Amino acid sequence: MVEIAHFGVEAWLNKWEKSATYDISQSTIASLSMHDLLNLDGQHGQEFYAMLDKQKMNYGWIEGSPEFKEEVAKLYQHVDPENILQTNGATGANILALYALINPGDHVIAEYPSYQQLYDIPKSLGADVDYWHIHEEDNWYPRIAELKQLIKPNTKMICLNNANNPTGTVLDKEFLEQVVDIAKSVGAYILVDEVYLPLDHPENFTPIIDLYDKGISTNSLSKTYSVPGVRIGWTATNAALADLFRKFRDYTMICGGVFNDQLATYVLRHRQQVLDRNRKLVLGNLAIYQEWIEHEDRASVIMPQAVSTSFPKLDVPVDIHTFCENLLHDEGVLLVPGTAFDTPGHARLGYCAPEATLREGLKRLSKYMHQYD
Question: What's this model's pTM, rounded to 2 decimal places?
Answer without folding.
Answer: 0.96
